[in-house]
Design a protein that fits this description.
TIM Barrel, twelve-stranded mixed sheet, 12 strands, binds S-adenosylmethionine, binds iron/sulfur cluster
Length: 336
Amino acid sequence: MLVDSFGRSITYLRISLTDRCNLRCLYCMPPQGIIWKPVEEILSYSEITKIVAASAQLGIRRVRLTGGEPLVRRDLPELVHSIASISGIEEVSLTTNGVLLERLAKPLAEAGLKRVNISLDTLDANKFKQITRGGDIEYVWRGIAAAEEANLFPIKINTVVVRGLNSDELLTLACLTLDHNWHIRFIELMPIGEQQDWGPGFPLPSHRYFSVKEIHQALASLVLKPTESPEGNGPSRTYQIPRARGTVGFISPLGEHFCASCNRLRLTADGKLRSCLFSEAEVDIKASIRRGESVEGQLLKALATKPKGHGIINPSDNLIYPADPTLARSMSQIGG
Ligand code: SAM
Ligand code: SF4
């Protein structure tokens, strides 16, 4: 079994299927875009399936597909079916921006996908366009409806909170859970990739971070009762508005409990294992698989690099947002 040097059992593999995306979210990609990796550098479905099979032998039980945007990868239901059929894999889930979900929710569910997390930071169509640099929120609404239709429950909505961008909408977003069986999770902005100036009208890098403590304050008018997270143990602290159909979660990647209960390994689209989102340490599992070697050793090697914590200081409210220039990959390239 995969147990790291700090006694954490690793049961969850997060796989980035592509570094490509059909949106350009401000906090995820630089404005000039990213030079996509050539196709031959990206893991094939058969390579991914081999890695998951080896991981399952070592104790991985849950797999999440992410990106970039995983739905832009062709024939995704085929991969979902292959992974869901691997002995030991109990759940395959997906994180998506939802834009292409309307057409894909049903075939993905039929292939064995259990649930989806959909990213949505605002309810305002213009602001959505601004944040995603051109996206159309209508596609996301249709994607959410299709996910419900396909029974991809629980449906979680991931909202990255950015001061001065969507920090005024938190109450409205939380109140969506009154009538919808959705689980809104407010996520602190993370210092990944370049933290450049987004241009006129946007908050400066030093002002963007909005802590979970502040999110709680913004929701102070709601009576939030602690409750179970819909997926059991996860990074979110979960609450419910009395009689609401859904829940409201808080994810503080910069907070301590996040690392202490971390149960995950990551696989980048170009075949590198990463044991921590914030660590540059990578193990080249693609090279091993292409040399025909066994990959178990690489999984164990990646496990050995798993740090106790990410070492990023939890900034007190409103302090300078701690961008780390050594983190060269953008979030879309690691697989958030
Ligand atoms: N494209 C898919 C999506 O947007 O859901 C999957 C990949 S995206 C990198 C995964 C998640 O990372 C999204 O929920 C996104 O909002 C989040 N994310 C991206 N950059 C982030 C940042 N700097 N801080 C916090 N979350 C971030
Ligand atoms: Fe694309 Fe997701 Fe990054 Fe937005 S957050 S640019 S949708 S990968």
